[in-house]
Amino acid sequence: MNSLFAGTLAAPVTGATHTWDGAGDVGPTVVGGRPASENYPFMVYVSGCTGTLIKANWAVTAKHCSTPSSVRVGSVNRTSGGTVVRVARAVNHPSVDVKLLQLASSVSYAPAPIPTTSGAVGTATRIIGWGQTCARPGCGSAPAVANELDTSIVADSRCSGINGPYEICTNNTNGTSGACYGDSGGPQVRRVNGVWNLIGATSRAGNNNFTCATGPSIYVDLPSIRSWMSTQVGGLPV
Q1: 88-98 pLDDT, tens per residue?
Q2: Which of 173, 82, 162 has its CA nearest to residue 126?
């Protein structure tokens, strides 16, 4: 079964919190989404989880995901393309569900910029990942190509146990679509002047339900910890 959320939030979380990593499930995509419509250069496959390139030699994923020995960067296909790079070390955030992965060498793919704010309720966003496309744990194999889903930011009150200042409550589009096992750590992005900006990293279910997409999902609000991330990686790209 899936692991429980690893890490202590500033706000208390009661009950089990179901995280969207692929550990112990069949396959490490997004339920109700579609195959990636473009070859997002910032995508990082993190062995059972998903991640995002934030600097030439740094990626971000979820803290509850295992640290892999290597990752594939720059391809929406987790089995081919891009560049496989060794992971030199991992840095966990002290409180929220974020892990930074330092790569042993730099890559030439364009990282996803992190803005200063994630956006207001109603902001249109997109989530991308290699999670299951069916809703129940272990119900299907993982697709080779990452899936994407257009969604939006919703009120914190719709997510159980959310740490409001540091997390984003993300809509389960049409009540049936959203993040699932294998999407953990993956990007939530929004368009800023025509460029995909990284605002969130997939963390867990927002309704404490093992079945995916039955409620909104919780994402770590990366702009809220941007200064910490920048310090750890020696400066984020502007």
Answers
A1: 999 999 999 99
A2: 173
